[in-house]
Specification:
mainly alpha
C-alpha cells in the first residue's frame, strides 16, 4: 500500500527536524563542554582565583585548529536554528519535484550542508582575523577587543549596516526564500548543495556584521554568543524581524557612540 502524501511529508519533516535538532545540540554541547569554549576557559567558567590572570594559549598549528573548530561549531549553533524553516521548505519542494519516491530528507540534508559550508568558510576567515588581532595584542584573554575606540567603531559600523539596503535585501531573501528556491532549483545532490550555498551567501550578507560583534563582547563569552544567535533567529523568522533589525541597529549606534565618548573622556 502506497503511503499518503500527508504521511510522507510528516515523515520527512520529522527526519529533517530530528537531524537539525541533533546538529544544533551537538554544536552547543561542543562549545560548552568540549574543546570549544569550555575547553579554552578555566574550569570555573569566567571567574579566576584572586591574584591569577587568565592568559590565552600561544598560537600554534594545533591551537589554530581548535580555534577554527570552535568557530565552525559556533556558526552551526548560531545559524542553523534560523535556517531551519528554509531547510524544511526545501524538503517539501524536493518531495514535490521528485514525487513519492524522492529522497526529500536527503535533499534537505545536502542543502543544509551547502548552507553550512559558507559559514564554515566564514569560520576560516574569523580564525585568521582572531590570530591577527591576537598577534597585534588587540585582544583580551576572553578574545574581546581591548581598545575602546576599536570596539566603538565596530558597534557603530554594525549599527549602520543594519539600516543599509544590502542588509535589508539579504534579510528579506532569508525571510522569504521561496521565489529564489523555485527559480534556482536544480535536480540531484549537486543542485541541492549549490542551492544551499546560494542561500548561505544571502545569509552571510545579512548576518556577517553581527558575527563581528563577537570581537566586541568576547568570542569566548557564552552569553554574548547566545544573545547574537537569538537576535539572528528573531530577525530571520519572526513577523517583526525586520523592525527588530533596525531597532538593534539604532541601539548599536547609540552604544558605540557612548563607548567612544567614554574612551575620549
Amino acid at each position: 500500500m502506497v503511503p499518503s502524501m500527508a504521511a510522507l511529508l510528516c515523515n520527512d519533516r520529522a527526519i529533517v527536524l530530528s537531524g537539525l535538532a541533533a546538529a544544533i545540540l551537538i554544536a552547543w554541547a561542543y562549545l560548552l563542554i568540549g574543546p570549544g569554549l569550555g575547553g579554552m576557559m578555566p574550569a570555573e567558567g569566567m571567574a579566576m582565583p584572586a591574584g591569577m590572570a587568565m592568559t590565552a594559549p600561544a598560537w600554534s598549528f594545533g591551537y589554530a585548529l581548535i580555534v577554527f573548530a570552535m568557530w565552525a561549531a559556533m556558526m552551526v549553533a548560531m545559524m542553523l536554528p534560523s535556517a531551519a524553516p528554509t531547510i524544511l521548505l526545501v524538503a517539501a519542494l524536493a518531495r514535490g519535484r521528485a514525487g513519492l519516491g524522492g529522497l526529500a530528507a536527503g535533499s534537505a540534508g545536502v542543502f543544509a550542508a551547502g548552507y553550512l559550508l559558507v559559514w564554515v568558510g566564514f569560520g576560516v576567515v574569523a580564525t585568521a582575523l582572531q590570530w591577527g588581532l591576537s598577534q597585534a595584542g588587540m585582544l583580551s584573554p576572553m578574545m574581546a577587543t581591548a581598545d575602546r575606540a576599536v570596539a566603538s567603531a565596530v558597534l557603530i559600523a554594525a549599527g549602520i549596516y543594519q539600516w543599509t539596503p544590502f542588509k535589508n535585501a539579504c534579510l528579506r531573501q532569508c525571510r522569504s526564500p521561496m521565489a529564489t528556491l523555485l527559480a534556482h532549483w536544480r535536480p540531484g545532490r549537486l543542485g541541492a548543495l549549490r542551492s544551499g550555498a546560494f542561500n548561505g551567501f544571502f545569509c552571510l550578507g545579512c548576518c556577517w556584521v553581527l558575527m563581528a560583534l563577537l570581537f566586541v563582547g568576547g568570542v569566548m563569552n557564552f552569553l554574548w554568543i547566545a544573545g547574537i544567535a537569538l537576535l539572528v533567529l528573531i530577525e530571520k523568522t519572526l513577523p517583526w524581524g525586520e523592525w527588530t533589525a533596525r531597532a538593534a541597529g539604532a541601539l548599536l549606534v547609540i552604544w558605540g557612540a557612548a563607548t567612544l565618548a567614554a574612551a575620549i573622556l
